[in-house]
Amino acid sequence: MEFNIAVLPGDGIGPEIIDETIKIMNAVGIKYNHAFTYINGLVGGVAIEKEGTALASDTLKMCQRCDAVLMGAVGDPKYDDPQAPIHPEDGLLELRKELGLFANLRPVKVYPALIDNTNFKPEVIKGTDFIFVRELTGGLYFGRPKRQWRTTRGRRAVDSMSYSEQEIERIIRVGFEIARTRKKKLISVDKANVLQSSRLWRQVTVEVAGDYPDIELEHMLVDACAMRIIQNPRYLDTLVTENTFGDILTDEASMLGGSLGMLASASLAGVPKAGSRTPGMYEPSHGSAPRRAGQDLANPIATVMSMAMMLSYSLGLVREASAVEKAVEKVLEEGYRTYDIMGEGKIKVGTRKMGDLITERV
Ligand code: IPM
Ligand code: MG
Q1: Same domain, 252 and 355
Q2: Which residue owns the Cα nearest ligand 1 atom 12?
Q3: pTM score, whole prediction
Q4: pLDDT truncated to tens, each residue of the chain (362 aa)?
Q5: Domain membership of residue 163 as a residue range
Q6: 20 to 30 Å CA-CA from 248: which of 35, 284, 287, 309?
């Protein structure tokens, strides 16, 4: 089959991890007889530099025309000044909004090969395998009002955690659909003891649950969830939550897998169903790590695993996706590690070597 892929390497380590991911994708293409055509675009700091905006309208249109979008990372300390008029992250948020990518899937898995590599007791994290469904185009990130202003008594600022029932319903449906493909247990994470938006979230969740009698539903407060993730991660299977809660909890959860460099992510514009293709953007959950850029240090695995999610969710290539996942597992079992997951007696490799090793095993 033939596919057009929009590729947005972005900033920092973005270009390096994307290069390796494409190398691996090409190996998939050869092995399974698919032609992937890559169309490059700019987003983030590089886009600000070359085009004066974090996401040019041509780039957005190009992404809309492609079968899927593969992104590296955005973020550049040059634009860290809160007064700066544009931030690289604006490009990413605009992409999410404009492409309607409301559902962000982040699987958290503890690989047996990495079990001794984390800050946790192996017996606590062994067998951990859950997935976050994070709402991605609403809540605190996008709600209005959102501004900073001056008053006679000093400066003030506001962000709004705002949700419509439609926005809640569609993300909850994604949660239920994903739960249906797993252990049929959905945990909805909110702060309904305090926040109005969470109370609506919980009401809508209970209403939608009526359509999914086969799925067991549990509500969990976000603070309790933060605790549960490190206290008993095996308890978790499918979780669905608000944008900011999801941002915070997924970084926390990534530590179970040994590194943020292992956490893949798929951002979808629809409810994924078996046998159907959902438009989406695929990027690692980590940032651009500017201090590590250009040194052949970065761990490409989160991006590679995101690409595997792209094969399965947006291109319908489930068998190919599992080949990539198996290749990654094999490389880890053989003891190869980038610096962030390095352990005693293991073989330390750089970004490119890690890419080559995975490519050979596809
Ligand atoms: C993530 C990142 C982004 C977010 C940043 C880069 C804007 O932290 O994808 O989790 O906050 O969503
Ligand atoms: Mg984040």
Answers
A1: no
A2: 247
A3: 0.96
A4: 999 999 999 999 999 999 999 999 999 999 999 999 999 999 999 999 999 999 999 999 999 999 999 999 999 999 988 888 899 999 999 999 999 999 999 999 999 999 988 899 999 999 999 999 999 999 999 999 999 999 999 999 999 999 999 999 999 999 999 999 999 999 999 999 999 999 999 999 999 999 999 999 999 999 999 999 999 999 999 999 999 999 999 999 999 998 999 999 999 999 998 888 999 999 999 999 999 999 999 999 999 999 999 999 999 999 999 999 999 999 999 999 999 999 999 999 999 999 999 999 99
A5: 118-257
A6: 309
| CB of residue 280 inside a 6 A radius of ligand 1 | no
Domain assignment present for residue 87? The answer is: yes
Which mutation among 11, 55, 92 tests ligand 1's pocket best, with the greatest number of atoms within 8 A of CB? 92
CA dihedral 178, 307, 125, 336 (to 10 degrees): 160
139 lines ligand 1 (CB under 6 A): no
Does residue 278 fall inside a structural domain?
no
What does the alpha-carbon distance between residue 177 and residue 271 come to, in Å, rounded to a whole number? 7
Query: Which ligand has the minimum distance to the alpha carbon of residue 92?
Result: 1
Distances (CA, A) of 153 to 41, 148, 149, 156: 45, 14, 11, 9
| Residue 111 forms part of a structural domain | no
* SS3 at position 321: helix
* CB 76 near ligand 1, within 6 Å: no
